[in-house]
Amino acid sequence: MTVRELWLSRHGESVANAAATRADLEGLDRIEIDIRDADVPLSATGRDQAAALGTWMTANRGAVDVFWVSPYRRARETLGVALGEGGPAARIAVDERLRDRELGILDLLTIRGVERFHPEEADRRRHLGKFYHRPPGGESWADVALRLRSFLSDALEGPGTSAMVVAHDAVVMLFLYLLLPLEEAELLDFAASHTVLNASVTHLVRGPAGWELRAFSSVDHLESQGAPVTVHPGSRDVEPE
Q: In the chain, how many domains are there?
């Protein structure tokens, strides 16, 4: 079967999201968290958001044939809380190709910290642009897109006609790049003016002319349940001048 309807959700707020925002507000060079990225859990707010996402899943459970999830803890926790302990069994597949973008030597640095400790990388980032800049030991957006192409070649051919992915903000953005599809400049313009919010839902449908974006980063389910709507940029690399 061919998947014709796809929902994309970013994980709920993580403790690293909150720590990164505090570091930016306090003008720090480093994000004060000592947890491997793959093991970062949800914050209390993130668990509330995941529970609110569960109301969306309850309303749409019959429409989703399979759930795909990043192996990172914050994504798996989001899906687990949303589906609930006593809910109907769901078909869930964990896939490492859905993991967050790896930042290499820039990991846990704020924008200020990158400028201080790795000014040469800040210069390279400004020259190459966000899409192609690969920090030493890390990935560019183009690298993430490559592994997502591999994922899509498998996931879009079954096991059902609809699927939901719970992953990370860069993953959601790059799905749009691949499926709509977008050029590099179109993607960066879109990303500059749109944020993939925590526990939001983005909806794509495949029609005769290709994939169409029906909704982007919807948080109606959060607002209806009184869960906080948080804005945390997910990419910690250097922003353009």
A: 1
